[in-house]
From TrEMBL:
InterPro entries: 6-blade_b-propeller_TolB-like, MRJP/yellow-related. Its main location: secreted. Residues 1-24 form the signal peptide. GO terms for cellular component: extracellular region. It comes from Phaedon cochleariae (Mustard beetle). This is Yellow-like protein. Keywords: Glycoprotein, Secreted, Signal. It is found in: Secreted. Belongs to the major royal jelly protein family.
Length: 440
């Protein structure tokens, strides 16, 4: 090799080394920091005697309770983490609580919210009580919204209700019982997103969109009118080929409808979109919220407007549960079979390398991310909160090993997660309305 070629080769190698060093130095850390973790859920009993009495009576079956969802409330410099523990079987004394800074055998203690009295006599469907909190969300008006579905041993014992608490006072603001006219015989309201159209007049101009995981429909609730209606479309159904799950060596079969739901940012001049997907499916769908808020479209026929629903042509390779969208329009969601967390720029094309990326990958800590939330902390920075539940053990009827960590709540700075990924770069919209979404 002559001297000229040697110099070119040396310069090229130096460029590669320097580029690698620069990339390594500035490469963002994509860690989800564990805030709380449990081998089993513990509750805030007044004494060990009371706790043991509840265990002896079967009111508290320790080691069998599974958390499902979480959200965080920032007030000044303090934060409060809420968690749901649905009553999927007997022996769950508390179904909605606050994670305290105290522990028992290393497990964070959960205090009942708003008080113990709200969790007693759940089988009797008390007016001032919570039968079974499934999922929750905290809105920008400092309100905690709760789906109270009321199942026990997989049987609906109490009417499905929407509960709303004022987090500044911890008082109940609203109790709304869904009428039979919007529910089906097998309805199970599993998830919700809150659309605050504007914050005037005590945030009364608010709509809630709820996913019916077994009825394969949405329910829309209008706070100002205190009314609800059903919306149905075939995009809300599961896919038969995606009913078989394989997660960390556990295989089970579930044909679940809508679980993932999220809203694009509320920006002036931009129509807001609701994204959603059936858990047992490979697709992502969306609809303009202005259509959903128009009750007259669906009054006589919940299936009246198939043309308003859109489905991306590209699909996931595995099922997905919960999802959330940040104020920049970036979606975050779990890939159940892959045991990863992905992001998607909603201005781009779904499952395209130019707008989708993997941002977290841990086969141990990321098993079954059932709770996914975006929150803004006291410094104005966005955070991604994720609760992982290892729910595959529930689906297969396998007991949890209480000597292992089974449940985690994790958090990460959104900017660190997506910095340098394709999710940060807007691409032309890939909006489609594929009429044959069940076809390859």
């Amino acid at each position: 090799m002559d001297n000229g070629l040697k110099r070119v080769a040396i310069c090229f190698l130096l460029w590669i080394v320097c580029s690698s060093v620069v990339y390594t130095k500035h490469r963002p850390r994509r860690d989800l920091n564990i805030v709380h973790e449990w081998s089993q859920i513990e509750f805030d009993y007044h004494s060990e005697v009371e706790r043991q009495a509840n265990i002896d009576s079967g009111f508290f079956r320790d080691g069998t309770i599974v958390p499902l969802d979480c959200d965080v409330y920032y007030s000044g410099n303090t934060s409060t983490v809420f968690i749901t523990t649905p009553r999927i079987h007997s022996g769950t004394p508390v179904t909605l609580g606050i994670v305290t800074d105290r522990t028992r055998n290393g497990n964070p203690i959960v205090a009942p919210y708003p008080s113990w009295s709200w969790h007693n006599n759940s089988n009797e469907c008390p007016v001032n009580g919570i039968s079974s909190a499934f999922r929750i969300t905290i809105d920008e008006c400092e309100r905690l919204w709760v789906i109270d579905i009321g199942p026990l041993n997989d049987v609906i014992t109490c009417p499905a209700r929407l509960l709303v608490f004022d987090l500044r006072t911890n008082h109940l603001l609203l109790r709304y019982e869904f009428p039979n006219s919007v529910l089906l015989s097998n309805s199970f309201l599993s998830t919700l997103v809150v659309d605050v159209v504007d914050q005037a007049n005590s945030c009364r101009n608010t709509f809630v969109y709820l996913g019916d995981v077994r009825g394969f429909q949405m329910i829309v609730y209008d706070l100002a009118q205190n009314r609800s209606w059903a919306v149905r479309d075939r995009t809300m159904y599961p896919y038969p080929n995606y009913g078989i799950y394989n997660i960390a060596g556990q295989q089970f079969y579930i044909m679940d409808g809508i679980v993932g739901m999220s809203l694009t940012p509320n920006k002036p001049g931009e129509p807001r979109r609701l994204f959603y997907h059936a858990m047992s499916s490979p697709t992502e769908n969306w609809v303009y919220t202005s259509y959903l808020r128009n009750e007259t479209i669906f009054r006589n026929n919940p299936f009246a407007a198939p043309q308003i629903f859109h489905t991306y042509r590209n699909t996931r390779s595995t099922q997905s549960s919960a999802e959330a969208i940040d104020r920049d329009g970036i979606m975050y969601y779990g890939l159940l079979g892959d045991i990863k967390i992905a992001c998607f720029n909603t201005q781009g094309i779904y499952q395209n390398k130019n707008s989708t990326a993997i941002i977290a990958d841990n086969p141990v800590t990321l098993q079954f991310p059932d709770g996914v939330k975006i929150s803004t902390n006291s410094r104005g920075r966005q955070e991604l909160w994720i609760l992982t539940s290892r729910a595959q053990y529930v689906a297969t009827g396998t007991m949890f090993d209480v000597n292992e960590t089974n449940f985690r709540i994790m958090v990460a700075d959104v900017n660190q997660l997506v910095s340098g990924t394709s999710c940060r770069h807007s691409q032309p919209r890939g909006l489609t309305n594929n009429p044959d979404i069940y076809l390859p």
